Amino acid sequence: MTVSVMVGVFVQVVAVVWVHATIRGEWLRRPGALMLLAAVVFHGVTEVMQAVWPGRNFFRTFVDQRLIDDWVLLVSAAVACYALAYGLIVVRSWRDKPAAHAHDEVGLARLRLPWLLLLVVPLLVATSQGKGALQPLSPGAVDQDIPERGGVLVDLAGEFLVPVVAITGAVVVIRWGMRWLVPVLAAQGALLAMAGTRAMIVFAAVLTLVGAALHGLRPSRRQVALVLVVVAAFTALISSTRAVAGREVFDAGQGGGERAEALLDGAAKINTEESREAILNDVVYRFDGNTFGALVFDSLRGAGQPVGLETVGNNLAMLVPSFLAPGKLGNRSLEQRSEESYIDSAHGLSQHVDWLPTMLGTVVAYYGPVGLLLIAVLLGVGVGAAELFALRSMSTARVVFVVGLGQCALLYGSGPQPVITTLRMVVVLALLMSAVAWLRHRHAERAAPFDPRRAAVLRASEPRHSMVPGDRLRVRPLERPAGEPARLSPTV
Questions:
Q1: What is the pTM of this model?
Q2: In the predicted model, what is the mean pLDDT of residues 106-133?
Q3: Which of 19, 176, 339, 345 is the most exposed place for a label (fewest CB within 10 A)?
C-alpha cells in the first residue's frame, strides 16, 4: 500500500469518526451514514484487500498504481466533503430528536403478515423459476434480445422483492421480538439465494435491521456475529455455486429445480480449492470501486471531456414506467439507456467489462474534480435533509421511506442511475404500505365493538391546543367532571 493510498484511507477513517459522533452511533437509523460506510468500503477498505490479497483483482490490469494513488486522494477528499456536509445537517437537527418507538401500533407495526405475504410470495415464486428478479448484465450485454428478461413480473420483482422481503422480516422481528432475527435472516438468505445474486441477500439483511432499529430494537453482539455468519454463508454459497455450475444456472428462464440442484452442489463443494478460490476472488474484486473512477479521472486529465448533466437527463427519462411508455427502450440507444455505457463510450472504456462505477466514480465524469467535490457537498446536504424529513414521525409511509433510502445507500457501488430508479420504487412502496396499513386499521375499527371507555381515553389523549401559522396559540377549554368546581385556565 502506497503512502498516497494510506493518506486517503486515513482521511476516510476521520470522516467515519466524525459522522459516528454526529449521529451518536445510530448507524442503522441513518441512511446517510450507511451511504458513507458504503463509500468507504468501495474506496478505502478495498485498498486494504488489494494489499492483503494482491493479484486477485482483474480490474487492476486496466490501470497502474500511479492512477490509483491520484484517484484515492481525490475521492477521499470527496468522501470527507460529503461527511462534513451531512454531519453538519445532522448537528443542526440535534434539537429535533428522530422519532422513537412510541407504542405498538406505529410504523411497520401497523402492517400484518397476511397482507405482506400476499405481495411477496408471487415475487419469490417467480424469482425461483427464473421469471422474477434476475442477476444484472454488463452494459455490453444489455442490448441482447432475451425474451425471458421481459415481462411485468421481472420488472416488479427486480424493484420490489428485496425491500418487501426486508419489511416482512422487520415486521416479524418487531411483533415477536429480536430472538427471531437470526431465523428470519436465515430464511431470507435461503429464499433469495434462488436468485443467484449476493447483493440481494446482503441488502435484505441490512434493511431488516434498519426497519427494526427504527422501532427501537437493536441486536446484541452475539446476534450481530450470528448475522454476519449467516449472510457470509449464503453469499459464499452463491460464489461456490457459480464456480461449480457456472453463472448460467441463474440466467433468466432457468427453473427452480435446476437452481436448487446447483445450490446443493455448491454447498457440497464449498470447501474445495476451486470454491475457496472463487469466493476469495469475488470478495477482492467485487468491492473495487477505484478502478473505474481512476480511469475516468485519467481521461479527464487528457483528451477526455466532462459529460455534464446529459446522463442525468437520460436517467430521469428512464424513470417513466414501461407501461406508460412502451417504446422508451426501443427508441433510445444503449448510451441513452445506460449511464455507465455512456461514460464508457465517452472515455474509451470497454463496454464488455462489468465495472463498479460507484456514485462518486460516476459523478467525477460530470464536471471533473472540482465538480466532484461540490456535488459531494450537495449530496451530503440532500441526503441529510431527506433523512431528517423521514425521521420526524413514525408513520408507516415515513418508515418505509427510510428503509428505501437505506436501499439507495447500499446501491452506492452501482452509481447514480440505479439509485434514481430506486427512488421511484421507494415512493410507490411507501404509498402501497400506507394503503395496506390504512386498510388494516379500517378493518380493525369495523371489527372491534364500540367501547365508551376507550373512546373517552382517546378523546383525553387528543392535543388541547393547535398552532396555525401566523396565529396565536388557541386553547381548548378543559373538560371537567360533573360536580367539580370550575378552575381558571392558564393564560398563554
A1: 0.83
A2: 84
A3: 176
